[in-house]
Automatic annotation (TrEMBL):
<keyword id="KW-0378">Hydrolase</keyword>
<feature type="domain" description="AB hydrolase-1">
    <location>
        <begin position="43"/>
        <end position="167"/>
    </location>
</feature>
<dbReference type="GO" id="GO:0016787">
    <property type="term" value="F:hydrolase activity"/>
</dbReference>
<dbReference type="Pfam" id="PF12697">
    <property type="entry name" value="Abhydrolase_6"/>
</dbReference>
<dbReference type="InterPro" id="IPR000073">
    <property type="entry name" value="AB_hydrolase_1"/>
</dbReference>
<protein>
    <submittedName>
        <fullName>Alpha/beta hydrolase family protein</fullName>
        <ecNumber>3.4.-.-</ecNumber>
    </submittedName>
</protein>
<dbReference type="InterPro" id="IPR029058">
    <property type="entry name" value="AB_hydrolase_fold"/>
</dbReference>
Length: 230
């Protein structure tokens, strides 16, 4: 049986950038890799990793290459992931948006949570793949070794304003957003998004949703296509 770790290992096998590198700020993490024809419809990919500085965009390169081969311009985003300064991540995606223009935003895991916030703020079309969509549930479950707590810089009791402002589940009304989650996910358990309007993919693990070689990829691609159509 293929595990989430097996899929991630395969996605990380080619760690050489194949896209065109551009910067939207002075920090080494304020960059994006661009794939495909710049005249084609834009998709912005935002990676996950439970907001940890040690996890970067590398594992989404196969997805970026696959989407560009299907006729899209793809911007694979990097952004700052600073424990205790969550707003740096939010600001970075806003600055990237200003640098590259309107497009469909696709985020995975922690990146899915950021895309949900970004879509709500700027009204972008968006797809959140296995997002950390409910911070309270993730915190209660201790997911990612309390990754959300570490990113925000304290517990909900210690930093209530930040928790309330950043938790995607508190947005309320969704516009132009599609949430996709596999019911076999072990990294972000399905119950985290059980109260959100998610599209469920039976049998899919966490990294299956960003793996072009996965048997579930056609379902993910169809959801992205639906978001692009608006």
């Amino acid at each position: 049986m293929t595990t989430e770790d097996d899929v991630l290992t395969r996605l990380l096998a080619n760690d050489e950038p194949t896209g065109r590198l551009s910067a939207y700020g002075p920090d080494p993490d304020q960059v994006w890799e661009e794939y495909g024809d710049p005249h084609h419809p834009l998709i912005v990919l935002v990676h996950g990793g439970y907001f940890r500085p040690s996890v970067d965009r590398t594992h989404l390169r196969p997805m970026a290459a696959a989407l560009s081969a299907e006729g899209h311009r793809v911007a694979l985003a990097e952004y700052r992931r600073l424990p205790g300064d969550p707003w740096a991540s939010v600001r970075d995606l806003h600055d990237l948006d200003e640098a590259i223009g309107d497009g469909t935003w696709v985020g995975h895991s922690a990146g899915g949570a950021l895309v949900m916030l970004h879509a709500n703020t700027l009204g972008r079309r968006a797809v959140a793949l296995a997002p950390v969509g409910d911070f309270a549930k993730s915190h209660a479950g201790g997911h990612g070794s309390h990754a959300v707590r570490d990113w925000i810089g304290g517990t909900p009791e210690e930093r209530p304003k930040d928790w309330n402002a950043l938790d995607p589940s508190g947005i309320g009304e969704w516009q132009r957003l599609i949430i996709v989650h596999g019911d076999g996910d072990e990294s972000v358990p399905p119950y985290v998004n059980a109260d959100l309007p998610a599209q469920w993919i039976s049998g899919a693990h966490h990294f299956d949703l960003v793996d072009p070689a996965s048997p579930y990829w056609p379902q993910v691609r169809a959801q992205i296509a639906a978001a692009i159509r608006g």
